[in-house]
Amino acid sequence: MTEVHPPVWPHSGAPHRLSFISAPNEQARRTHDELVARYGQYAPHDADAVICLGGDGFMLETLHSMLGEPIPVYGINCGSVGFLMNPSLPDDLPAHLAQTQAATLHPLRMCSIDRAGVETKALALNDVFLFRQTRQAAKIEIAVDGRVRMPELICDGVLVSTPAGSTAYNLSAHGPIVPLSANLLPLTPISAFRPRRWRGALLPSTARVTLTILESEKRPVAAVADFTEVRDVVRVEIEEDRTLHATLLFDAGQSLSERILAEQFTV
């Protein structure tokens, strides 16, 4: 689940201890140096707010590093897409931050087991997805809360998305966009072959999804949780982790909820 807070800075008083981090591109580095010269620099875990300069990929990396911390992250777009970023640099950054809107994001936790019996755990703020490794289509059994809901899905893959990630890979795979307050997780097939017309499901945010790979030696499958990839998996469990969170800040009137809603009317 993703909680949306009122349009107000989540702490008392305007932030003055700022930590600036930048993606490794020229625009981000130049902006970083200008802001540090103007406002100074604190270590991320000693700051009132972290200012992330880059694109969505770098923002995801930053949010992963801040999981479980009470320090919010404000993004300034110095990349390409920038769906998780704010579009421009304000004149008075501390005063501007005091008027931002906060969204609290909870990650998915993936626990996978490969053919060698090795267990891998990873977190995902966007999605966890499985995909075939060879020309052979994958065969996947889908269970929700211990009950098999689909004995065999023949496909290129399948994914479970957070609401915040529902506009990313999930949308490209024709999955539904989910409002942040919906308490739902999209379960979306990737190029389903059988059942051909199955479009996926919307699961409660409390659901535990178990994906078991059928004929795993003949039809090898990999699993990805944001930045972590595991090859030759035989079983993957996915559920939301409510013990961890990251706080993301947006300009007034440009909250993540508003962006997700607007995306549904984009043609």
Automatic annotation (TrEMBL):
Catalytic activity entry: NAD(+) + ATP = ADP + NADP(+) + H(+)
Pfam families xref list:
NAD_kinase (PF01513), NAD_kinase_C (PF20143)
- Can you tell me which residues bind NAD(+)? D56, G57, N126, D127, D156, A164, T167, A168, Y169, N170, L171, S172
Q: Which UniProt keywords apply?
A: ATP-binding, Cytoplasm, Kinase, NAD, NADP, Nucleotide-binding, Transferase
Q: Which InterPro entries match?
A: ATP-NAD_kinase_N (IPR017438), ATP-NAD_kinase_PpnK-typ_C (IPR017437), NAD/diacylglycerol_kinase_sf (IPR016064), NADK (IPR002504)
BP GO terms, sorted: NAD+ metabolic process; NADP+ biosynthetic process
- Asked whether the UniProt record includes Transmembrane helix among its keywords, one would answer no
Recorded E.C. number(s)?
A: 2.7.1.23
Predominant location category: cytoplasm
Write down the top EC class of this protein: transferase
Please give the GO cellular component terms listed in this UniProt entry. cytoplasm
One function term, GO molecular function aspect: NAD+ kinase activity
Residues the record marks as active site = D56 (proton acceptor)
Cofactor(s) demanded = a divalent metal cation
User: Where does it localize?
Assistant: Cytoplasm
Protein role: Involved in the regulation of the intracellular balance of NAD and NADP, and is a key enzyme in the biosynthesis of NADP. Catalyzes specifically the phosphorylation on 2'-hydroxyl of the adenosine moiety of NAD to yield NADP.
Family named by the database record: Belongs to the NAD kinase family.
Q: Could you tell me what this protein is called?
A: NAD kinase
| Organism (species) | Gluconacetobacter liquefaciens
Its lineage opens with: Bacteria, Pseudomonadati, Pseudomonadota, Alphaproteobacteria, Acetobacterales
The record's gene field reads nadK
